[in-house]
Design goal:
By secondary structure, the protein is of the alpha/beta class. The protein has helices at residues 26-30, 66-79, 114-126, 145-153, 219-234, 262-266, 280-298, 313-317, 331-334, 340-355, 373-378, 398-402, 416-430, 459-464, 511-516, 521-534; strands spanning 3-4, 46-50, 83-86, 130-135, 165-166, 189-193, 199-204, 239-242, 303-306, 327-330, 362-364, 434-438, 543-545, 552-557, 561-566, 572-573, 582-583, 591-592, 596-601. It is built from 16 helices and 19 strands. The longest helix is centred in the middle third of the chain and has 19 residues, at 280-298.
Length: 607
């Protein structure tokens, strides 16, 4: 995937190309060896993230499950995605809703069992959908048998060497071994009691005390995860989304950090002593070798896609070298504010740095950890949320608190938040590479920002008392049908209430309404996915920025697709003549309204 950039007349990174490049071959575009398209399915795939707990409940207990996912497969096939990524469904005490795993080779009874999982995989494959599992190698649950044994066996035992246990500092070990802070709040160390009831060693947990970090310097950890991968690959999964893929290894001496609260302050992996250690790359080489072993059996790639939260695209590129992860989520687009210069910069950096590795960029705008785009974009300059009073219940961040359901278009589906979210979706789907959608994104769901404190489940809230950065608002169970909660999410006369309450305005976003309204988010996504699939070189295409008005970001791909987004609020002349293939909103002839995106196949004059 190559990029030559030409800006709005203000870019200094390069000059306009004299003509549009023709479609490049995969090998020429990426430097990677050419493969059969069936093998390279992941390079341009659109994967739908299923947050199992909130997708569809088949048992009436108010919690989504694997059988519910299986019921919804036909809906996802109709939408036009290529596969699904399942959030953790392993046995877990649910302190972080499955990202605290007690058994990596089983299904939590609340979600079903292995037989139901096998049926889900079989049905998905029958529909031509890939299945990716979420795997959590950085830490496990405090109820994992390994950790229970570590507590029982005491200092110096082989069981404790599977984790980061250390003696404390101070006269009697009363101080933590170092000054690190946990991402979800509080110290990154907790102290345990010995068999005699006296205070003993400390153990490391970079998230919560219920999620002890595994010690990847112990070969037994790597050996066990090798078997975990094979267990699920033998059951037919097509790959793995890897949680905290820049984690696993810590600095071997566990020294004090010069900025110990960085992770806690940003809710991100910033501490350079705890993340992005060089040894982690060998783990991904080993995992890639396992996937290649299975690929060799039938010629279809098994995918590794990493949650790699690092500072720059060039750092991310190190994780997607040809013998490591196939892909890594490009979070710089997700975190970009609604600003033309920011979007242009991060897209250019991604295509430049990631292309050199032979991988394709993995674009994402929403996930289970972030405020939804409809709300996020409404809270930025020019959005209706600017007019709302800052602050919110129990100390919400001003940006989220300001984005009330009305400001985000929650009740009407109108406003700058929805318009920008629709335009952002078309922009993402036009970019060369792969894309990941988060459930409810196709319904235009805003964030639920007014959940009462007593129903919040996010450990960030319970450890800090602050609503800033909490994630429950994007995890509220999906509305499927009807005019009142549970909106078809759960059914039955004795059905429990959904595990998080659904607001009344969810009725405006229910799936049955979305399918019936041809102007809905759902139809925009479906049409975009259909057009995307009809174009050649999706993953390998070239891209060149086009000259355009100052508020318009426009590019043309090597296959001739032109995408333009008006980041401003006022209409401008369309940068391409003719009728668009697809628009994110109403486009009067020859114009591109504010907060609107459109696709064209370029006219001969633009070649």
């Amino acid at each position: 995937m190559l990029i030559a950039t030409a800006g709005n007349g203000s870019s200094a990174d390069s000059a306009p190309s004299p003509s549009l490049p023709g479609p490049a071959s995969p090998a020429a575009a990426t430097g990677a060896p050419s493969q059969d398209p069936a093998q390279r399915w992941w390079r341009d795939a659109v994967i739908y993230q299923v947050y199992v707990r909130s997708f569809l409940d088949s048992t009436g207990d108010g919690i989504g499950d694997l059988a519910g996912v299986r019921t919804g497969l036909a809906y996802l096939k109709k939408l036009g995605v290529d596969g699904i990524w399942l959030s953790p469904f392993y046995p877990s005490p649910q302190h972080d809703h499955g990202y605290d795993v007690a058994d990596y080779r089983e299904v939590d009874p609340v979600y079903g069992d292995l037989a139901e999982f096998d049926r889900l995989v079989a049905d998905a494959h029958r529909l031509g959908l890939k299945v990716l599992l979420d795997i959590v190698p950085n830490h496990c649950s405090s109820e994992h048998p390994w950790f229970r044994a570590a507590l029982a066996d005491g200092p110096g035992s082989p069981a404790r060497s599977l984790f980061h246990f250390a003696d404390g500092r101070g006269e009697s070990g009363e101080l933590p071994p170092n000054n690190w802070r946990a991402m979800f709040g509080g110290p990154a160390w907790s102290r345990v009691k010995g068999a005699d009831g006296r205070e003993g060693q400390w153990y490391l947990h970079m998230f919560t005390p219920e999620q002890p970090d595994l010690n990847w310097r112990n070969p037994a950890v790597a050996a066990d995860f090798d078997q975990v991968l094979r267990f699920w690959l033998d059951r037919g999964v097509d790959g793995f989304r890897i949680d905290v893929a820049a984690g696993l290894f810590k600095h071997p001496e566990l020294p004090d950090s010069p900025d110990p609260s960085a992770d806690e302050r940003t809710r991100d992996s910033v501490n350079p002593l705890a993340w992005n250690q060089p040894e982690v790359h060998q783990v991904w080489r080993d995992w890639r070798a396992v996937c290649e072993e299975y690929t060799a059996r039938d010629g279809h790639d098994r995918l590794l896609v990493g949650e790699v939260s690092v500072r720059t695209p060039s750092e991310q590129a190190a994780y997607v070298r040809p013998d490591e992860l196939h892909q890594a989520f490009f979070f710089h687009l997700l975190t970009a504010r609604w600003d033309i210069d920011t979007f242009r910069r991060v897209i250019s950096e991604a295509l430049t740095d990631i292309a050199d590795t032979g991988s394709t960029v993995t674009w994402v705008l929403n996930n289970h950890d972030q405020v939804r785009t409809v709300t996020r974009y409404a809270a930025e300059p020019g959005g209706r949320a600017e007019e709302a009073a800052p602050g919110g219940p129990s100390g919400e961040s001003p940006e989220v608190a300001a984005a009330s359901p009305a400001a985000a278009g929650g009740e009407s589906g109108e406003g700058l938040g929805p318009a920008r979210a629709r335009a952002g979706a078309l922009l993402m789907l036009a970019l060369p590479g792969a894309a990941y959608l988060y459930q409810g994104e196709e319904l235009g769901l805003p964030e639920v920002v007014d959940l009462p404190d007593e129903v919040l489940t996010d450990p960030i809230f319970h450890r800090t008392g602050s609503r800033e950065h909490i994630r429950d608002g994007c995890r509220v169970p999906l509305p499927w049908s009807g005019h009142a909660s549970p909106f078809g999410f759960t059914s039955g006369t004795d059905a429990a209430r959904p595990w998080l309450p659904q607001p009344e305005w969810f009725a405006d976003h229910a799936t049955d309404r979305a399918l019936a309204d041809t102007r809905s988010f759902w139809h925009l996504y479906r049409e975009g996915l259909q057009l995307r699939r009809s174009l050649p070189q999706l993953g390998e295409g070239t891209l060149r920025w086009l000259e355009s008005p100052p508020q318009v970001l426009a590019f043309v791909r090597g296959d001739g697709l032109v995408c333009a987004v008006n980041f401003g609020t006022e209409p401008v002349p369309a940068p391409v003549p003719g009728v668009p293939l697809l628009t994110s909103g109403d486009c009067p002839a020859g114009t591109l309204p504010g907060s609107t995106a459109a696709w064209w196949m370029h006219a001969p004059a633009h070649r």
